[in-house]
Specification:
By secondary structure, the protein is an alpha+beta fold. The protein contains 8 helices and 28 strands.
Length: about 550
């Protein structure tokens, strides 16, 4: 290893320029052409790239310092390459003119990175928590390895749990576990070291495994929410009939900050800069995003909270912590109830013939190794109803100016688990057979109960079915799972006397409740949807048409 001093490259006509942003820290590994810092003259800003790969050992400048061509910026620890001369500092990219007002930004130039030289022999490597899409800490709920265990690439090492999801962390490469740095119950975040491994092959030559991001396994009322990842902050919506609103507010930000803002969907005119001369730095953008995510939704006049009472004055009590999933469900239920004007449509459906047909299929179901419940038929009928009445397959845009009409039919099914309620989503229900739906219902239900659902298996629903049939009860009013506009509540099938011809006969009757968002759907549509659903389920032959 050797130390290379990295200096400011030729700045052309500029004499002294200001350091406005540091993009690396001591101990950080960088690749060739990674940006190190941002300089600003009186006319332009430019990012200075690393001329070679290495580890940052020291930084010689601070924010606000004035530097010139040849000034020392930092030092890198690089691998020795024999007698080869060290690479000359890469010429600085052509400075990009700083825009002083909000305007069209050109696409950033693609960054190229050279491949890291492979290590000469096996070595002990640190395994870190991969990118979780959030800076929040998550809990380790299970450890699958111990010291001296041999693992292969992609073997599961630990399981992490956020407030909405569980995620397995795989081994990035094969080797022997030298030491375990965490324990069950520890809190970790992106980049936290979890173990040391003696790699069997050079780490640089292996492609690390990429686990599923934890963001996005949603609970029942949040099935449409994108993960606990840092989400793009929605900008003011533009309606199709009105021009975009323009602002004259000026802001100052370097290219790296502008790129980050574009990726997160942040309007920089709304961000307060904390850097020199009120310049916006990356931390300002990240702070802005977090404030928007954590801000409570505005739901009109504030409602005072229910006061806490000292219940111990009345007798013995126990304070029982709520699970993360229960707390998240409560927050989203409250949000949906406050923001959606609910209408409930009640109906009873004669499913006698359907139940007889399902009983006739019991032998074939056993041969297929599938348990044929009532739910696949219900899914199929709801899919047909969503195609017949597409006004139920929409989401209302936040501006209220238009709706998003969906051309696909994905339906969520609420599943009760020990941790709380979750909603796996079955995709393209309208394109699948009853047998295919039966298999998928069983598969996703088991994954939900074992908390093994992937983020993508809980996103994108157009409509939700919540069934309490196995529990009992004559009916209930489910809360719409916004941004969906409708949900179907299903009660327990009961035998009732139905007047047919000139007499009462016993029939199996299914109570349903269709809850819908009155902002998107009117009462006539609700009645038509429920009636059509009853027609499909009371005579299964209609599902074959």
């Amino acid at each position: 290893m050797s130390i290379e001093n990295i200096k400011v490259p030729d700045l052309g006509d500029s004499s002294e320029v200001e350091v406005i942003e540091l993009l690396v820290s001591v101990g950080q590994s960088v690749e060739e052409n990674d940006s190190l810092l941002v300089l600003e003259s009186d006319k332009a800003a430019m990012e200075i790239p690393a001329p070679m790969a290495g580890v940052v050992k020291s930084i010689s400048v601070n924010l606000g310092d004035q530097v010139s061509t040849g000034s020392e910026m930092l030092s890198l620890e690089v691998e020795d390459v024999g007698n080869q001369e060290p690479a000359e500092s890469a010429p600085a990219e052509e400075p990009a003119a700083i825009e002083e007002a909000v305007a069209e930004e050109s696409a950033p130039a693609a960054e190229t990175k050279s491949e890291a030289a492979p290590a000469a022999s096996p070595s002990i490597q640190s395994i870190e928590v991969p990118d979780l899409g959030t800076d929040d800490e998550v809990e380790i709920i299970e450890i699958h390895i111990k010291e001296k265990d041999s693992v292969e690439a992609d073997d599961v090492l630990i399981t992490l749990e956020s407030d909405k999801a569980a995620m397995d962390v795989p081994a990035p490469y094969a080797g022997v576990i030298e030491s375990l740095l965490v324990a069950v119950g520890d809190k970790v975040k992106t980049g936290s070291a979890i173990a040391k491994i003696m790699a069997q092959a050079p780490a640089a030559t292996q492609e690390p495994a990429k686990p599923d991001a934890m963001e996005a396994v949603d609970s029942k009322p949040a099935a449409q929410q994108p993960a606990p990842e840092v989400k793009p902050v929605p900008q003011a919506a533009e309606s199709p009939s009105s021009p975009a609103q323009k602002t004259d507010k000026k802001f100052y930000a370097g290219p790296a900050v502008r790129k980050l803002a574009r990726e997160l969907g942040v309007d920089l005119t709304q961000v307060v800069g904390s850097g020199a001369k009120s310049r916006i730095i990356k931390e300002d953008v990240q702070k802005f995003v977090k404030s928007k995510i954590n801000a409570p939704a505005v739901q009109g006049p504030a409602i005072s909270a229910v006061p806490d009472i000292d219940f111990s004055q009345f007798g013995d009590i126990e304070q029982v912590p709520r699970s993360k999933l229960h707390k998240l469900t409560a927050v989203n239920m409250q949000r949906n109830w406050n923001s959606v004007p609910h209408v409930a449509q009640f109906n009873e459906i004669d499913v006698t013939d359907l139940e007889e047909f399902r009983a006739d299929l019991k032998g074939e179901a056993e041969r297929r190794g599938v348990k044929l419940t009532f739910l696949p038929f219900l899914l199929k009928a709801c899919a047909r109803a969503l195609v017949e009445y597409p006004q139920f397959n929409v989401s209302v845009h936040s501006s209220g100016e238009f709706v998003i009409q969906k051309k696909y039919v994905h339906i969520g099914m609420a599943v009760a688990t020990e941790a709380g309620l979750v909603v796996p989503v079955i995709r393209n229900v309208d394109q699948k057979t009853i047998w295919q739906l039966a298999e998928e219902v069983i598969e996703l239900s088991n994954k939900a109960k074992n908390r093994k659902l992937k983020p993508e298996e809980m996103q994108g629903a157009c409509f939700t079915i919540s069934s309490l049939g196995a529990i009992g009860g004559t009916g209930f009013i489910p809360i719409v799972n916004a941004p969906e506009v409708a949900i179907l509540g299903v009660g327990k099938t009961d035998i009732k006397p139905v007047y047919i011809g000139a007499e009462f006969v016993p029939r199996k009757v299914l109570p349903i409740t269709l809850s819908y968002d009155h902002k998107a759907v009117n009462g006539v549509d609700g009645g038509l949807f429920a009636t059509y659903l009853g027609k499909l389920l009371s005579d299964v032959r209609h599902l074959a048409l």
